[in-house]
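Run Mediator of RNA polymerase II transcription subunit 27 through structure prediction, thanks.
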Amino acid sequence: MQNQITIEQLNSALSSLRTLRSSVSHVFETLSNGLRADHGEEGKDKLLLELQELLNNVNVNLRELDQTVNNLPIPSAPFNLGNTTFLSQETTQDRQALYTQLVNSYKWTDKVHEYSSYAHTLLSQNSLKRSYINSGSTKRRGKLQSNHNVAPAQVDNVINTIDRSFNDMKITISRPFASNAVVQINLSHVLKAVVAFKGMLMEWVMVKGYGETLDLWTESRHHVFRKVTENAHAAMLHFYSPTLPDLAVRSFMTWLHSYINLFSEPCKRCNCHLHHTSMLPPAWRDFRTLEPFHDECKQ
Ligand SMILES: [Zn+2]
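Sure, done. The structure for Mediator of RNA polymerase II transcription subunit 27 is below.
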């Protein structure tokens, strides 16, 4: 085929490019070395002569590259997309532009592909991505991916065990959405909470006052319980553990249980019940020590 570039032509073009580059770097090398001992008495003139000769070489090599490149056939289109090239021979006027459009969309999808693979790499490193573990290794993935897909009986078992270990906190399980559990927690006469599970993973939590009606989506009308809800979301993310999902649930419930003294225990930092500006009780509990703090007072 006339339009096809042969390997030999490409090779000779590349090698003349290489020669040109090496002769150019030779010029700069000599120039940066400056006057040398072997230039002798009339050092300056000798150096100038040497540079002139090197520059001549560059000129010759450049002309050679020019020639070999000129010998290369010009590709008829930026890409050869197989039989679609024939679209450019279309006689109907409004279809003539089709091939260019096709090439453009090809480039575009190529870019989309490239960017999405970058995005995939970045997202798979995101530790807040909780439901699926993309660690790259399929072996590990197979083991961990089942966090959101465990048998209901297993979830019940974990939650009932937690329920039995606190006598002032009542936990009840319901399943209004098929297999996933929705858990209601009554913490003495202090608060109620509802937690939506996806398998063994806690997905959503809502905290309300003791006297309020509880559902997953309406916020409490009291500022303090809206604050506790906010902090409970932080706790849910903090305790999340892909390898030990039942421990995550247990840690979260223990943390939530520490709100039993929400209205009776003062802040560990300022020793006040109500914060002097927000006028709220200590609505934060330390993840480790479970000590009460005002949001404004936590470290
Ligand atoms: Zn405080």
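The two ends are 75 Å apart (CA to CA).
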